[in-house]
Amino acid sequence: MKVLLVFAHPDPRSLNAALRDVALKDLEAQGHEVRMSDLYADGWKSEVDRADFPLLAPDARLIPVAASKEAFHAKALTEDVSAEIEKLLWADVLILQFPLWWFTMPAILKGWVDRVFAYGFAYGVGEHSDKRWGDRYGEGTLAGKRAMLIVTAGGWEEHYSARGVNGPIEDLLFPINHGILYYPGYDVLPPFVAYRVDRLDKAGFDVLAERLRERMRTLATTPPIPYRQQNGGDYLIPTMQLRPGLTDAAATGFALHLDDSREALRQAGE
Q: Radius of gyration (Cα) for the chain, nearest Å?
């Protein structure tokens, strides 16, 4: 497989960098082709601004969606953005690796998404009608590819559990897994999360590294998170509301967007 790892940590001596090296070494040992985008080392520009859109007239308002659409279709995106899009099209698997900062990804990685996931590439594709609402949430440019997160957190695993004070890790990562990765079509694998990393000793790192190697060895076989496809019949179009009867009427929250029947069928086949 072809694997792209997008790395977001400012210190090359960090635990994240050590885990990144473990992952890359194992992937290469398996014979996979690997590329990496090291955002801090590359000096990645995070903010979306006028410099991103060379075709925009000096006196025109900057409407990022419209400017992104025009630039993408005119093949006039900046060189750094175009290079990252080429990597995404090349890769069979995308891995985003980052420390959990204030319950989400570092700003530099969010800025990578903001700039690289251009209109016409990652969103704004497909037919819009009374039967479809574009190619997104399970469909789109990146459909058929896989993606996953490697995340480090200073807190305990219990802090990120269903009753933990920080909220379930599945909910905290939902906007990334579902809203950034599943939206343009990726099959999203369960994240690899390392907890209590601020006090990790060598023995703990060795255990963690072996866990990560195992995840790298199962990239092709790990079942993805069973998100519901937008155009698969579970949602009413154009309101995009989940059809009645698919879940408990009183149920709410992110778990509504998981197709439990798919997961049950998978487990029954194991």
A: 19
Phi, psi dihedrals of residue 56, rounded to the nearest 5°:
-70, 125
Span 166-184, pLDDT tens digits:
999 999 999 999 999 999 9
- Give the pair of three-digit tokens for residue 54: 């060379």
Q: Please give the Cα distance from 263 to 259 (Å, whole number).
A: 7
Residue 269 has pLDDT above 60, yes or no: no
Beta strands in 191-265, from DSSP E residues, in sequence order: 192-194, 235-236, 241-242
Write out 62-100 in H/E/C secondary structure. Answer: CCHHHHHHHHHHCCCCCHHHHHHHHHHHHCCEEEEEEEC
Per-residue pLDDT, 260:
75
DSSP symbol at 140: S
Angle at 187 between CA 181 and CA 190, to 5 degrees: 85
Q: How far apart are CA 113 and CA 110, in angstroms?
A: 5
Query: Encoding tokens for residue 97?
Result: 């690796």
Rounded to 5°, angle at Cα 26 from 20 and 29: 140
Euclidean distance between CA atoms 87 and 36, whole angstroms:
9
